[in-house]
Amino acid sequence: xxxxxxxxxxxxxxxxxxxxxxxxxxxxxxxxxxxxxxxxxxxxxxxxxxxxxxxxxxxxxxxxxxxxxxxxxxxxxxxxxxxxxxxxxxxxxxxxxxxxxxxxxxxxxxxxxxxxxxxxxxxxxxxxxxxxxxxxxxxxxxxxxxxxxxxxxxxxxxxxxxxxxxxxxxxxxxxxxxxxxxxxxxxxxxxxxxxxxxxxxxxxxxxxxxxxxxxxxxxxxxxxxxxxxxxxxxxxxxxxxxxxxxxxxxxxxxxxxxxxxxxxxxxxxxxxxxxxxxxxxxxxxxxxxxxxxxxxxxxxxxxxxxx
Length: 307
Fold this sequence. Notes:
Elements: H1 6-15, E1 28-29, H2 33-44, E2 52-57, H3 63-71, E3 74-79, H4 84-91, E4 98-102, H5 110-123, E5 127-133, H6 139-148, E6 158-166, H7 167-173, H8 184-190, E7 193-201, E8 206-207, E9 214-221, H9 225-228, H10 236-255, H11 261-264, H12 271-281, H13 294-305
Parallel strand pairs: 2-3, 2-5, 3-4, 5-6
Antiparallel strand pairs: 1-8, 6-9, 7-9
Helix pairs in contact: 2-3, 10-13, 12-13
């Protein structure tokens, strides 16, 4: 079925009495080259010599799902819109390696969901990817749930997280320290993974046409926070507490972007202590948080929290 053909999409929606819902941020792809390229990018990060599974968040009418089915051994698509479930059953009937689950991704227990649906893939030494055309309004919560559902001392079970999101947000996620787009979300993600913008997608590739451009981002998980900062505590509980302290420091640093780090942290750490920590790191005392990399946030945190 041509799930990127505008007439096909409208016909399916009409058949099931549906229309794109603004509440769910639904904009359906109508250029087949885009979802094919996204699925190929997602699969490229996996070990293709072993079994491959993928979680898709928000399959819509199945435009991306069909290409994931061609690239992966198992596809589990999570769809919040109950009305789309029977439509997806028809749209994807030619594929026997896909399961559509009606659920709100933000409410599921992610580790349990992975165990329930992908234990066979994992037991065989395979890999799991995550791929999605994410609604703009929920991009950050979804990405942070994927990253924060597992302890920061562990490698995530995902070979990659490949998502299509608003172009402006994509630039922010993949920004380098010191750039205008760099922010707390950039630094927080960098503690768990490397994010890179893969390619842009113009608004004309969707129905209805959104008011903004999109881009596809690849997020490749690290083996854990120790990959970013090898001097993180060896003890598991201490390392988890350290990771929390780093996240707290990042939030404080970006809570008032115009302030220097010394002033931004003054509610928790004395200015003298922060200045001394920066001097130990060889960093200027008037530095702002937006200039610091994830590893530098870790180093400063280590010094500030060492008894």
